[in-house]
Amino acid sequence: MTDTTDRNRTQGADGESETPVQTRKTTKRGGGDPAGRGRTTIADGVVEKIAGLAARDVIGVHAMGSGLSRTFGAVRDRVPGGSKAVTRGVKAEVGEVQTALDLEIVVDYGVSIADVAKDVRENVVAAVERMTGLEVVEVNIAVSDVKLPDEEDDEPEPRIQ
């Protein structure tokens, strides 16, 4: 489709109109913005993995999950072919545009629990919103234990180094 209007005509040196300049009107195919075509869904497990990794990055977080889940996780991690449970201690409820998270953490002895919780909350919200585009409406944190310096880890060291 072409559009020739007086505005698109060029004038010669003598001030008279010359041949019209033709311009093409751009037409969008498919009915609009490509980003708006279709629907993206994000599984709860995806958000749980992102949140779990973000929480573990905070200094003062020793582990994720309750003592029982960490014990089962340590056994599962030792099974050949098993992988670290990144989602241990994380529960997400994901909607179409928002998500809410519940985290269960173990903190190191001597750190400020309030500061660690604040840092975890900030890191998790930033990571989840940046990677998923979902709005994080709440991050509930339950501190289930404190790791004392002289306590053994629930997760044994691997025999092969």
How would you characterize the overall build of this protein?
This protein is of the alpha+beta class and 161 residues long. 28% of the residues lie in helices and 27% in strands. The protein is built from 3 helices and 8 strands. The chain has helices at 44-56, 67-78, 113-132, and strands at 2-3, 9-11, 17-20, 23-24, 61-64, 90-94, 98-108, 135-147. Strands 5, 6, 7 and 8 form a 4-stranded mixed β-sheet that branches. Strand 7 (98-108), helix 3 (113-132) and strand 8 form a beta-alpha-beta unit. Helix 1 (44-56) crosses helix 3 (113-132). The radius of gyration is 28 Å and the shape is elongated. The termini are far apart. The model is unreliable at 157-161 (pLDDT under 50).
- Terminal CA distance reads 71 Å
Unreliable stretches (pLDDT < 50, length at least 5) are 157-161
Quick one: biggest sheet? 4 strands, mixed
How much helix, percentage-wise, in residues?
Answer: 25-40%
Based on secondary structure, the structural category is alpha+beta
- SSE series: EEEEHEHEEHE
State mean pLDDT (0 to 100 scale).
80
Instruction: Report the portion of residues in β strands.
Output: 25-35%
What spatial form do the alpha-carbon principal axes imply?
elongated
Total E-strand runs = 8
Number of helices: 3
Calculate Rg over CA atoms: 28 Å
Task: Give structural attributes.
four-stranded mixed beta sheet, alpha+beta, 161 residues
Give the SSE layout.
Elements: E1 2-3, E2 9-11, E3 17-20, E4 23-24, H1 44-56, E5 61-64, H2 67-78, E6 90-94, E7 98-108, H3 113-132, E8 135-147
Helix pairs in contact: 1-3
